[in-house]
Amino acid sequence: MATFYIWCMRGTAQPLVVIVLLLFSVTASAAEFAGTASGVVERVVDGDTVKMRVGIWLDQEVLISVRVAGIDAPELFRPKCAAERQLAGRAKAFAEEFLSGGIADLMDIQRGKYAGRVVARIEVDGNNLGDALVAAGLAYRGKRGNWCTQ
Asked: Which pairs count as long-range contacts for 80-83, CB under 8 Å and 24+ apart, including other chains?
């Protein structure tokens, strides 16, 4: 241990220390959030994306975009056809009604593929938003569907 310390002190180990710290930070940041987080619904962006204010620590909150896990709803902002635009409006209205109480729980939270967004199940009183959208015919389970051929 003393040899490692002296080696580090001479400056030759700086790249090694930086690499170890980077590896640790990548591993730590890839972890899922354990447990449930409750938050205030700020607004529904579209059928499968919601902006929420979530408490992360004592008196600390973060405003985050949450993508509903496991589903794909029609695109509101870049629809491929008029039918998709119409269904996207219905999906957004459905999500707004589902979340009208203003409070929702996030479960199985994971880092999203886009910066500043997470992917999670969104539930209100034990009812899952993704399941409800699929049951209403306003989302597909899994990957993107073709909304223009319906």
From this structure: 80/147, 80/148, 81/147, 81/148, 83/147, 83/148, 83/150
